[in-house]
Amino acid sequence: MREPRHAVEQARKCDVEGCSRDAERSISGKKVEKAGLSIADPTQSAHLCKEHYKEFKKVTKKDRTLERLGW
Ligand SMILES: [Zn+2]
């Protein structure tokens, strides 16, 4: 799996459609899409603002619980 470079992103905006807050985190676009957030290009790493990152984390946490139950 390709890791995004950990360079500090400067003045990036959140990639979620309709959001114009400053991005705080860079996440794999595929994971973001899976979490139900709408981004322009899921093949690229997506930049999320604080609020969308929180949402992303909430959803992925739920996902993990479901996966564990499915085992
Ligand atoms: Zn956002």
Question: Which descriptors would you attach to this protein?
Answer:
71 residues, single chain, alpha+beta, binds zinc ion
Notes on the protein architecture:
The structure is a single chain. The chain is an alpha+beta fold and 71 residues long. The chain has a domain at 23-70. The chain contains two helices and two strands, in the order βαβα. The protein has helices spanning 29-34, 50-70, and strands at 23-28, 45-49. The protein is globular and about 40 Å long. The structure holds zinc ion. Zinc ion binds next to strand 2 and helix 2.
Gross geometry: globular
List each distinct ligand once.
zinc ion
**Order of strands across the biggest sheet?**
1-2
Indicate the structural class. Answer: alpha+beta
Order of helices and strands: EHEH
| Biggest beta sheet summary | 2 strands, antiparallel
DSSP strand count: 2
Radius of gyration based on Cα positions: 13 Å
Uncertain parts: none
Instruction: Please work out how many helical segments DSSP would assign.
Output: 2
N- to C-terminal distance: 24 Å
What is the residue-averaged pLDDT?
85
